[in-house]
C-alpha cells in the first residue's frame, strides 16, 4: 500500500503528520517510523513548545526541547505545527501565581507568543489552545479571568507581528460534534475577523471514540471554512474500551476512514495529525481508565487495520 502522507498528498492535502515527544526520540525503531516521510510529512511537539518548557521563568526562554524536534523534522523534510502559545495547562507557576493587572498580562502573553513564533518562524501554530468549556462558555483560566477575551487578540496579533508568514490557529477538542462549543468557536472567529485580528485556521483536535465518530463531520468542517479560515484535524486518535478485539479494530478502521474522508472532501482542510502514531506513546490509557489502543500502530509498532482505513479515506 502507499504511505499515509503519500495518500494525503494525492488527495490534495498539505500533509499527514504525527505528534511526538522528546523522551520518545531515544527509541530508535520508533524514530525510524516517525521519520518515514511517505507516512509523515509533519510533526507536532507534544510538550516541548508549551509555556512551561519555553519560558519557565519570566523573560528567560529555553528552546532546546522544541529545537530537537524541529531539527528532526528538517532532516526528514517534514513540516512543524507549533504547539502551543496560550493554554491553561502546563503553565509555569509565575504565570498562574502572580496577581496580574490586565495590561501587564496582555504584555506577557504578547511577549511569550511573539518570542516563540518569531524564534520558530515559517510554521503553522496553535496560538490559542482550548479556550472553551464543553458547554461553549469561556474557560475560566488566568488569561480569561484577568483580560476577558482580550488575550486572544493580543496573542494572535503578536504572533503575526513576529512572523507574517506563520499560520495562526485556534485549536480545541469536541468541536467535531457541532453544538454549543463549535458555535462559540465560530462566533469567536467571526468576531476576530470583523475586528481585523489575524486568524488563519481552526484546529479540531479529534480525540474521538470508536463507534462514536460524528457522521456529519464534513459539514462541521465546512461550517468553519465558510467563515474564511482553513481547518485541520490536529490531534486525531480514536480510543476504545479495552481489551482490543478484531471487531473493535474493524470499527476503528472504519472510524479513521470516516474522519479522513471528511477532511479529504473539504478543500480548506489542509491536513491531519495523529496524536502519536503508536499506542506505545498514546496519552489515552493514563487519562481514561480502561481505554486505549487509539492510534494507527499498536504498542509493538505494528500497523493496525486503522492504517488501511486512513489510506482509504484519502484515496477512496
Ligand atoms: O515534565 C514532567 C516530568 O518532569 C515529571 O517527572 C513527569 C512525572 O509525571 O511528568 C512530566 O510532565 C508530564 C508531561 O506530559 C511531559 O511529559 C505530565 O505529567 C503529563 O501530564 C503531560 O501530559 C501531556 C498532556 O498534554 C498534559 O495535559 C501529554 O504528554 C500530551 O500528549 C498532552 O497533549 C494534549 C495537547 O497538548 C492538547 N490537547 C490534548 C492533548 C492530550 O491531553
TrEMBL record:
What GO MF annotations does this protein's record show?
cellulose binding; endo-1,4-beta-xylanase activity
Coiled-coil regions, chain positions: none
Where in or outside the cell is it found? Secreted
Domain of life (superkingdom): Eukaryota
Q: Enumerate the UniProt keywords alphabetically.
A: Carbohydrate metabolism, Glycosidase, Hydrolase, Polysaccharide degradation, Secreted, Signal, Xylan degradation
What does the record give as the active site? 235 (nucleophile)
Its pathway?
Answer: Glycan degradation; xylan degradation
The GH10 domain covers 1-313
User: An example Gene Ontology cellular component term from the record?
Assistant: extracellular region
Its main localization is secreted
Reaction(s) catalysed by this chain, per the record, are: Endohydrolysis of (1->4)-beta-D-xylosidic linkages in xylans
- What EC number(s) would the UniProt record show? 3.2.1.8
Q: What processes in GO biological process is this protein linked to?
A: xylan catabolic process
Similarity-based family? Belongs to the glycosyl hydrolase 10 (cellulase F) family.
Mind telling me what this protein is named? Beta-xylanase
Relative to the complete UniProt sequence, the shown stretch is 84 to 399 of 399
Amino acid at each position: 500500500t502507499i504511505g499515509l502522507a503519500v495518500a494525503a498528498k494525492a488527495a490534495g492535502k498539505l500533509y499527514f503528520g504525527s505528534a511526538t515527544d522528546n523522551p520518545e526520540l531515544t527509541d530508535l525503531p520508533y524514530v525510524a517510523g516517525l521519520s518515514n516521510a511517505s507516512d509523515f510529512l509533519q510533526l507536532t511537539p507534544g510538550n516541548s513548545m508549551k509555556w512551561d518548557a519555553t519560558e519557565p521563568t519570566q523573560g528567560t526562554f529555553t528552546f532546546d526541547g522544541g529545537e530537537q524536534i524541529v531539527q528532526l523534522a528538517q532532516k526528514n523534510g517534514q513540516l512543524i505545527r507549533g504547539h502551543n502559545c496560550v493554554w491553561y495547562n502546563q503553565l509555569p507557576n509565575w504565570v498562574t501565581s502572580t496577581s496580574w493587572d490586565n495590561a501587564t498580562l496582555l504584555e506577557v502573553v504578547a511577549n511569550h507568543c511573539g518570542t516563540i513564533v518569531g524564534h520558530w518562524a515559517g510554521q503553522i501554530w496553535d496560538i490559542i489552545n482550548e479556550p472553551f468549556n464543553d458547554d461553549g462558555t469561556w474557560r475560566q483560566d488566568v488569561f480569561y479571568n484577568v483580560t476577558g477575551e482580550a488575550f486572544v487578540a493580543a496573542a494572535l496579533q503578536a504572533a503575526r507581528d513576529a512572523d507574517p508568514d506563520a499560520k495562526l490557529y485556534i485549536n480545541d477538542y469536541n468541536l467535531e460534534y457541532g453544538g454549543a462549543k463549535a458555535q462559540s468557536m465560530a462566533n469567536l472567529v467571526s468576531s476576530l475577523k470583523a475586528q481585523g485580528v489575524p486568524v488563519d485556521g481552526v484546529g479540531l483536535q479529534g480525540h474521538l471514540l470508536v463507534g462514536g465518530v460524528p457522521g456529519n463531520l464534513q459539514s462541521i468542517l465546512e461550517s468553519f471554512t465558510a467563515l474564511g479560515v482553513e481547518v485541520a484535524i490536529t490531534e486525531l486518535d480514536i480510543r476504545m474500551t479495552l481489551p482490543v478485539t478484531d471487531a473493535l479494530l474493524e470499527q476503528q478502521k472504519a472510524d479513521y476512514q470516516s474522519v479522513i474522508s471528511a477532511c479529504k472532501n473539504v478543500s480548506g482542510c489542509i491536513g491531519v495529525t495523529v496524536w502519536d502514531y503508536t499506542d506505545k506513546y498514546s496519552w489515552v490509557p493514563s487519562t481514561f481508565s480502561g481505554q486505549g489502543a487509539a492510534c494507527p500502530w499498536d504498542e509493538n509498532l505494528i500497523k493496525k487495520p486503522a492504517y488501511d482505513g486512513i489510506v482509504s479515506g484519502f484515496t477512496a
